[in-house]
Amino acid sequence: MRASHTPDVLVPSADAFVALARSSPWRWSTLRFTARWWPRVPAGREKEPVRAWVRRPELLRVETLDGRLLSVVRDPRPAIPPAPVLRPDGLVAERPDTRGSVELFDSPFYENYFWTAMLDPVELADGAGLPVARGVAVESVTEVDHHGRPAWKAVVRTTAEYQPRCACCALLWSRESDLIEYGPDGLRDAYPEAYRVRLDVGTGVCVLTEELDETPRGYGHELRIEAADGPMADALFQ
Q1: Closest CA to 172 of 238, 220, 205, 215
Q2: Most confident range, picked from 46-50, 127-131, 183-187
Q3: Cβ proximity of 24 and 229 under 8 Å
Q4: φ, ψ (nearest 5 deg) of residue 120
Q5: What is the CA 107 to chain-centroid distance, rounded?
Q6: Worst-scoring range by mean pLDDT, 52-56, 69-73, 97-101, 106-110?
Q7: Where is average pLDDT lowest: 60-64, 184-188, 196-200?
Q8: How far apart are CA 54 and CA 32, in angstroms?
């Protein structure tokens, strides 16, 4: 469900980037996209590129790029999440406090929570629960074209307050995510210093993450939106 006030023009800034990251559940209703992940992804879970259809709040279809069906998800939701507090520009200033039921905002699940986080990248703002401090530092926000759609590009660094949707498959693999998942004894010698991140302006979806320095994992993804808010027939999800 879209927020009631969605202006045509948004001005990129660090604060607006963070607000866009928390706005996704209210900025689109249907989405068709392709997604790919860099060769080294969390825990060695190499995955082939896919094409997906999502109809909020409960329907998902996933195929290989050549059309082989991988999954159909029908995930009925018990309630509609409450409306957020909006900024004057129509982006979300504050999400409803749903600690204990954060899944109310989730799109249907596929394979792991990286999927959930790229479609709702609130961990680039407030993290998985409220209230928390900002989990990332955002620099150098500019508007770019991402496969024909306006996007905001930024340099993003995790802070000690970074709270991913799931630490084992965080959008930004980092010392902070490993500390949550494995504790001090599970930390590695090196982590990315920063990421280049892109958010689609129209939907708030995270369409790109890539490390800005060389690390053993080479962690990242790219999502290409093919259509947003168009009709989707029930037959797709049968």
Answers
A1: 220
A2: 183-187
A3: no
A4: -140, 85
A5: 10
A6: 97-101
A7: 184-188
A8: 6
81 vs 172, residue with greater confidence:
172
List of residues 6+ apart from 167 with CB closer than 8 A: 177, 178, 180, 181
Average pLDDT over residues 56-73: 96
**Residue 207, both tokens:** 């369409």
Res. 65: pLDDT tops 50: yes
DSSP 5-51: ---S-----HHHHHHHHTTGGGT-SEEEEEEEE-SS-GGG-----EE
Which among 214, 25, 30, 18 has a CA at the least distance from the CA of 135?
18
pTM of the model as a whole: 0.91
**How far apart are alpha carbons 235 and 238 in whole angstroms?**
5
Report whether 116 contacts 128 (CB < 8 A): no
DSSP state for residue 179 in the 8-state scheme: H
Structural domains in the chain, CATH included, are: 14-95+104-228 (2.50.20)
3-state secondary structure 127-150: CCCCCCCCCEEEEEEEEEEECCEE
